[in-house]
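User: Can you fold this complex?
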Amino acid sequence: MKNYLSINDIDTLQDWVEEAKALKSNPKKYETLGKGKTIGLLFFNNSLRTRLSTQKAAINLGMEVIVMNFGSEGWALEYEDGTIMNQGTSEHIKEAAQVISQYCDVIGIRAFAGLEDKEKDEAEVVLTGFQKYASVPVLNMESSVGHPLQGLADAITIDENKTKKRPKVVLSWAPHPKALPHAVANSFIEMMKLQDAEFVVTHPKGYELNPELTKGITIEHDQEKALENADFVSVKNWSSYSDYGKVLNKDASWMMTKKKLGAAKFMHCLPVRRNVVVGDDVLDSNQSIVIEQANNRTYSAQIVLKKIIENL
Ligand code: CP
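Assistant: Here's the predicted assembly.
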């Protein structure tokens, strides 16, 4: 595998999950595989889990790690071809990506959606700019439309916690005061399409995700009905896709509670706003598997990096 840009770069999800679980039981098994190799992690947006878990994964494989908060410390990049750069941008992606390729054997990129211009966000200018001009593999650490390291960690977490071959998994929208991107929900759906599971997405009207992505997926606007007999409930806010980037609804009745969760396991990618997205009663209960999810971010990154290094 050269790049890991989306869940669709996974050839066989179940094999990757099994390999990740094996790495988890022996994280240092390949501690010399990445010796002499450097990964550069470029953050255009904040992070806790992605930054630390990807670093830890790289260290477990013997790699050196360089981290740069590009959004606040790097030169403002230009992505358009042929631009007269007499405005705010100082460096073109063509030079930046090639220069970083001189220092790094793999480049990880975190660059969220701006949520103002759907076409621009869907073009993934930062991620695809690096993919186009870097001479080394590129790793998506959450882009405008996808968070495939999170999606893979979620698959590992479901596999570890399932008690039946074909569990019922629900992705439920939750209220949030700010407009959030669609990336986590998108990758969760892409990952669930590769699973043997009963899968339902529930959200208020107006929060339909990209119809190309949800084609063939069961959408239920009645949250209570969607949650019936669920084994796993993954909760996430996203802003409107059709009324792009807007917060249409802050209906607190969509918050996840212990009563609504029933006997299901609770999942969230974190960070999460307590008592807005989910109640304390859920997060502080043993039905919450959010810390396991966060732990599995290391092993999703490690299996991806292992496959990239093996192909260098
Ligand atoms: N889930 C996740 O990506 O967390 P961070 O934004 O803290 O990296």
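The first strand starts at residue 38 and ends at 43. The CA atoms of residues 74 and 156 lie 34 Å apart.
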